[in-house]
Design brief:
4-stranded antiparallel β-sheet; 8-stranded antiparallel β-sheet; binds calcium ion; 16 strands; alpha+beta; 309 residues; binds SN-glycerol-3-phosphate
Length: 309
């Protein structure tokens, strides 16, 4: 029965898309789609998880993934943070930190947390970094985060996730409705603040897969005394004033946050650049060893997907 409802919804969607949204501009057809998965879901009532076209206010269309079922659905995938080479320290592919080397003179690194540069494709969002215009255009209220094994196929993202959660109190409304605006207010820049004093917002989360204890299987054993589980934290500084962008699943208590926070600016003073990269110091005591400060192999080899609703 549920499958029939889904099928009817899907057929309806395709018919309406064809009938109502094709506008001729000169000789070129210009198709406009809803601005977010939430809008799309409101229009059609029920839809399955999957890939959908959305449009920006200026009329650019792009394909992304919509989670139409978790907690009522309507979640738009806007970005993925992927570590393509843990041994490459602020090298090619470290778009959410720096691809320009560990450099005190490039304190914001590539600056992608607070600019309008887009990259990647949704189909490859588990195999490389992804950022679409929704990241800076959609005005959202809450976020959902998935940790998905690298290279997983779209249909497998949700079932294979090692950790999934969402926020539920409209926190983004206080920060301009999206991460682009949030990070303008909390720059991911080396030396823009210090540990504790200048930590950005920590927002309570509701787990969709996993629990407080899961974190100890994902991050290193030494890290456990340095965080409180059950939050997502935006922009924090470590002992050496390196800026980290996002601490997934937790609120930092200590200052060695480079072992459990991701993304960052362009300079990490400790260890001569060994912590510079999209997954910072996840490999401090060896790649995927899950010993001392090192994260598990599962965590190190999973992409972090960010959704808005
Ligand atoms: O972040 C941990 C680091 O600051 C200290 O590491 O290798 O001296 O235990 P280590
Ligand atoms: Ca890297
Ligand atoms: Ca990357
Ligand atoms: Ca440290």
């Amino acid at each position: 029965m549920a499958q029939w409802v889904m099928l009817m919804c899907f057929l309806l969607l395709n018919l309406e898309m064809l009938e109502s949204t094709t506008i001729m501009l000169g000789n070129y057809p210009s198709v406009s789609y809803p601005k977010s998965c939430k809008e799309l879901l409101h229009l059609y009532g029920c839809l399955p998880d999957g890939l959908y076209f959305l449009s920006t206010s200026s009329g650019t269309s792009y394909l992304t993934f919509c989670d139409m079922t978790t907690d009522g659905g309507g979640w738009t995938l806007v970005a993925s943070i992927h570590e393509n080479n843990m041994y490459g320290k602020c090298t090619v592919g470290d778009r959410w930190s720096s691809q320009q080397g560990n450099n005190e003179n490039v304190p914001e690194g590539d600056g992608n947390w607070s600019n309008k540069v887009t990259f990647g494709t949704v189909e490859a969002a588990s195999s490389d970094d992804f950022k679409n215009p929704g990241y800076y255009e959609i005005i959202a209220e809450d976020m959902s985060v998935w940790h998905v094994p690298n290279g997983a196929n779209v249909d497998n993202w949700k079932p294979s996730s090692i950790f999934r959660y969402h926020t539920q109190k409209n926190f983004l409304t206080q920060y301009g409705g999206n991460l682009y605006n949030l990070y303008k207010a909390y720059p991911v820049r080396y030396n823009a603040g210090v540990c504790h004093t200048n930590t950005g917002p920590s927002i309570p989360i509701v787990y969709d897969f996993g629990n407080d204890e899961s974190l100890s299987t994902l991050y290193g054993p030494n890290s456990k005394r340095e965080y409180e589980p059950g939050y997502i934290t935006f922009r924090a500084f470590n002992n050496e004033k390196a800026a980290l962008a996002l601490c997934s699943g937790l609120k930092p208590k200590g200052c060695n946050i480079e072992h459990f926070c991701i993304g960052g600016g362009g300079f990490f003073a400790e260890g001569s650049g060994r912590q510079c990269g999209d997954f910072a110091g996840f490999d401090w005591n060896g790649y995927g060893t899950h010993s001392q400060w090192s994260a598990s192999k599962e965590m190190t080899e999973s992409v972090v997907m960010l959704f808005y609703r």
